[in-house]
Amino acid sequence: MAARGPGRVSVLLPTYNERDNLPLVVWLLARTFSDSGIDFEIIIIDDGSPDGTQEIAQQLEKIYGSDKILFLFPSGTAYIHGMKYATGDFIVIMDADLSHHPKFIPEFIRKQKEGNFDIVSGTRYKGNGGVYGWDLKRKLISRGANFLTQVLLRPGASDLTGSFRLYRKEVLQKLMERCVSKGYVFQMEMIVRARQLGFTVGEVPISFVDRVYGESKLGGNEIVSFLKGLLTLFATT
């Protein structure tokens, strides 16, 4: 059977206090898709931001039209809620803080068509991928987490904690039904479960840029949660 590439692509964009970043990331997404001739929609799911993100999202919906921008208040997990409204065959999950550049999405789509992959994951750790704007401590934590995961779980993918990915919609739905983790461990579990279920994963090198506005959520609690989640996955997979 010939590989069928994406018809329409739905971008799920969870937000929390992204007032400054949201207009730019939406503009970059719209420009990237238009320049590439790809049909798209952007679903913004805001988790009760107090900084005015919701008002910005509503304005963007008016500017671009509700066929291209949809703004939702989540009930439960943002991804699960967003998927209910997604009309695309493929779904892109990415951060709204400009750390993931939309310019890589056409490369994800090319990679998907090339290998008929179920998932295409952005990787900071292969080819010309990389991280910009992190201090040495943050780089060591990320590299260390990835190395531990590779040793314990052998997932067959080079970047387990990144969250910039393209999924077949039905594959994402099946994975969301099985994944129980939250935070940084969730992204790792998605790939591990995908391999368990026999789904194929392709990779595209990406440049990850530390957020321009706002604060990173990585702290001591997240590191402890990551280690607990990793050990749980090791014990149950």
Can you give me a brief rundown of this structure?
The chain is 44% helix and 19% strand.
As a percent range, the share of strand residues is 15-25%
The biggest sheet amounts to: 7 strands, mixed
Overall residue-averaged pLDDT value: 86
**Whole-Å distance between the termini?**
31 Å
Q: pLDDT below 50 for ≥5 consecutive residues: which ranges? A: none
CATH superfamily: Spore Coat Polysaccharide Biosynthesis Protein SpsA, Chain A
Tell me what you see in this structure.
This protein has 237 residues and is an alpha/beta fold. It has a single domain, classed as Spore Coat Polysaccharide Biosynthesis Protein SpsA, Chain A, CATH 3.90.550. It has helices at 22-36, 53-64, 78-85, 105-115, 136-153, 169-178, 184-196, 220-236, and strands at 8-15, 39-46, 69-72, 90-93, 119-123, 130-132, 165-168, 201-205, 207-209. It has a seven-stranded mixed beta sheet with strand order 3-2-1-4-7-5-8, with helices on both faces. The protein has a two-stranded parallel ribbon with strand order 6-9.
Provide the descriptors you would attach to this structure in a database record.
237 residues; alpha/beta; Spore Coat Polysaccharide Biosynthesis Protein SpsA, Chain A; seven-stranded mixed beta sheet; 8 helices; 44% helix; metal-binding; transferase; magnesium
Write the layout of secondary structure elements.
Blueprint: E1 8-15, H1 22-36, E2 39-46, H2 53-64, E3 69-72, H3 78-85, E4 90-93, H4 105-115, E5 119-123, E6 130-132, H5 136-153, E7 165-168, H6 169-178, H7 184-196, E8 201-205, E9 207-209, H8 220-236
Parallel strand pairs: 1-2, 1-4, 2-3, 5-8, 6-9
Antiparallel strand pairs: 4-7, 5-7
Helix pairs in contact: 5-8, 7-8
Pathway: Protein modification; protein glycosylation
Keywords: Endoplasmic reticulum, Glycosyltransferase, Magnesium, Manganese, Metal-binding, Transferase
Cofactor: Mg(2+); Ca(2+); Mn(2+)
